[in-house]
């Protein structure tokens, strides 16, 4: 405990770090206050306390920090920006123009960011129209149509762009990745209500306090398991040739390439989840097909069929996303240019094949573990855990939380070590970050 307070004191002594942390809290406070500002023309007294808290809407509401169900000006949050980032990154694989931009360094990244912003505006406007028509009750509208819809689309689009701007400011003047922190704060904001609801259910209903304590212990165990997956790496030894220039020796040292067990991060779950929402959409647009046994099974996120297909899709997408984000040929070429080689492996294509084989072997257990984490909320729901609390037992939300916290702590520790203070941990170093979609050249996207 003494070391903990000493570390906090050291953090406060570093002026740059102190200013960055203060800025981060202030920007996040602005976001949280804005999430309670209701859309103009909406009667706040008519808002339902349960609307938008189940299924897909519940997941979106969690990422938006409750703004979705409150019909706030920040109701759409940063999800349109995340969607635009994913689209731009996929275009970088399929379209030569975007591939070229990814290789042009800083200027290319600026152009990609500009394309992402334009696409964010278009996606937000479309989602805003759908949100107003499906989520805002006619009884809550104080302004006649179509003026209410037009006004709401402008406000929701401006709200998303403002949240995106806050995220960029946090990244520049704060600590950590701004977009990631905004998503994390939105998720954490739902945790106290979920825990309180589960506690009330257990104490006043079935199970009692003992079952509630067991659930908390299980949640801690799942979080620890998720940290292991996020931080897990396979190190490949690389030897660099020794060169003597004058009286100085260069190279001749052994370093390691850390290959992540889960190089794809949270993206496979996002892609698989998007596909798993299709059966429910088909049922809504084609009521005659809603009685199909297959559609009913796939629409129920607690059924065996749904979770089995969900797990298989996650494994497939993990291999797919790892293949497009980790390039063994480029790694082998860079290693060869810098005079490095893997002991016992010939440089060039043999090295690329060796790295590709290692990635393929470690991706299999990584994808299986990721699938287990993804279906944990469904398992918790089957075990009679409150649906809001069950979402924290795994899935996208938990991986984002763990990855963002580790990334932020890593940056704080870097500031401490750079100024010759002790880090946050006695042994080892905080490493690993969860992928969250941003446009950053050829590097894997960070949410």
TrEMBL record:
What is a single cellular component term in the Gene Ontology annotation? plasma membrane
- Report the protein name in the record: Protein translocase subunit SecY
Q: What is the lineage of its organism?
A: Bacteria, Pseudomonadati, Bacteroidota, Sphingobacteriia, Sphingobacteriales
Q: Does the keyword Transcription regulation apply?
A: no
UniProt family annotation: Belongs to the SecY/SEC61-alpha family.
**InterPro entries xref list:** SecY (IPR026593), SecY/SEC61-alpha (IPR002208), SecY_CS (IPR030659), SecY_dom_sf (IPR023201)
**SUPFAM superfamilies in the cross-refs:** Preprotein translocase SecY subunit (SSF103491)
Q: Which organism is it from?
A: Mucilaginibacter paludis DSM 18603
Question: Any idea where this protein resides?
Answer: Cell membrane; Membrane
Q: How does it sit in the membrane?
A: Multi-pass membrane protein
Q: Name a biological process GO annotation.
A: protein targeting
């Amino acid at each position: 405990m003494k070391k903990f307070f000493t570390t906090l004191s050291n953090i406060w002594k570093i002026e740059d770090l102190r200013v960055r942390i203060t800025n981060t809290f202030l920007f996040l406070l602005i976001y949280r206050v804005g999430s309670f500002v209701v859309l103009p023309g909406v009667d706040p007294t008519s808002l339902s306390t349960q609307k938008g808290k189940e299924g897909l809407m519940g997941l979106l509401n969690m990422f938006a920090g409750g703004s979705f169900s409150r019909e706030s000006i920040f109701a759409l949050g940063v999800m349109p920006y995340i969607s635009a980032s994913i689209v731009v990154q996929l275009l970088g694989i399929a379209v030569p123009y975007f591939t070229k931009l990814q290789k042009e360094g800083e200027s290319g990244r600026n152009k990609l960011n500009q394309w992402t912003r334009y696409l964010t505006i278009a996606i937000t406007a479309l989602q805003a129209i759908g949100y107003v028509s499906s989520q805002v009750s006619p009884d809550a509208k104080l302004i006649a149509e179509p003026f209410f819809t037009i006004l709401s689309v402008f406000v929701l689009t401006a709200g998303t762009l403002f949240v995106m701007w806050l995220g960029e400011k946090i990244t520049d003047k704060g600590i950590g990745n701004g977009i990631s922190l905004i998503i994390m704060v939105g998720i954490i904001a739902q945790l106290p209500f979920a825990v309180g609801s589960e506690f009330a259910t257990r104490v006043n209903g079935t199970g009692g306090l003992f079952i509630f304590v067991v659930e908390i212990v299980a949640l801690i165990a799942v979080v620890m398991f998720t940290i292991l997956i996020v931080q897990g790496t396979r190190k490949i030894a690389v030897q660099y040739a020794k060169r003597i220039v004058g009286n100085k020796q260069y190279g001749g040292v052994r370093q390691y390439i850390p290959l992540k067990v889960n190089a794809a991060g949270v993206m496979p779950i996002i892609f698989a989840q998007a596909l798993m929402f299709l059966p429910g959409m088909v049922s809504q647009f084609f009521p005659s097909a809603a009685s199909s046994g297959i559609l009913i099974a796939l629409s129920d996120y607690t059924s065996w069929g749904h979770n089995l297909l969900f797990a298989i899709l996650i494994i497939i997408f993990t291999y797919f996303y790892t293949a497009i984000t980790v390039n063994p040929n480029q790694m082998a070429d860079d290693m060869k240019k810098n005079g490095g080689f893997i002991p016992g492996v010939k440089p060039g294509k043999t090295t690329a094949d060796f790295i590709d084989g290692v990635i393929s072997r470690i991706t299999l257990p990584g994808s299986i573990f990721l699938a287990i984490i993804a279906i944990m909320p469904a398992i918790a729901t089957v075990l009679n855990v409150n649906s809001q609390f069950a979402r924290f037992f795994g899935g996208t939300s938990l991986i984002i939380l763990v990855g963002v916290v580790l990334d932020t702590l890593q940056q704080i520790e870097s500031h401490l070590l750079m100024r010759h203070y002790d880090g946050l941990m006695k042994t080892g170093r905080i490493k690993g970050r969860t992928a969250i979609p941003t446009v950053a050249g050829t590097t894997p996207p960070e949410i």
